[in-house]
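Methods — Computational structure assignment.
A single polypeptide chain was analysed. Its primary sequence is given first, followed by the predicted tertiary structure written as structure tokens.
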Amino acid sequence: MVGELVCTVGAIIVLFVVWQLWWTNVEADARQGAVVREFVQDAATPDPAPSPTATAAPKPGDGPAPVPEQPGNLGVIGVMYIPRFGEAYARPVLEGTGRDVLDTLGLGHYGSTSMPGAPGNFALAGHRQTHGAVLDNIDLLEPGDKIYLQTKDAYYTYVFRSGEIVLPDALDVLLPVPHKPGAKPTESLLTLTTCHPRYGSTERFIAYSTLDSWRPTSAGPPPEIAATVAAAQKG
């Protein structure tokens, strides 16, 4: 009887691990793929013809980067492309860091941090191993790697600068200037946060990038991700 009970408990544990590490990824990948496809297809839809008095669309790099309006919880901000994570990597970025976002929909924006293009810290969270494993390979990033964010109005190009491992209560990584309370930001930063180690959560892995350039969506995606954007649009 005891032996049967042990076997049953063992089987339940194995099934839970399979669900946690595999099936949650299958479900999240499908949902995230649908969100990405819908967003990219919508972004590719031409706007109505401008009036004769409309100003010309800005060229890549002209003027300050646009800052999108911050949506409500679960609102889609855009799509993130990280070539270092593979040619097919395209993940949705949504408002909020609750389970309703992170467990199903992808990368979540800390609402207290800046929006892309604005001076300060655009900070995101994502799972590393389960629920889509959106930041599974964060430790593979190398200085100089480019990270791209597509919003409704622009493509932002960030350059990875550095990473660090901190304790879960190190909330100063989310400050406008990480680790510097009260400092006035002069750059537009992207901060990615996830669990560390890979199969644990006793620490946090933090990746910092700096906005390098931007281009309006009307100019098309940066050449480095053009094929990925086209594939995401087709689904």
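Note: Residues 86 and 228 are 10 Å apart (CA to CA).
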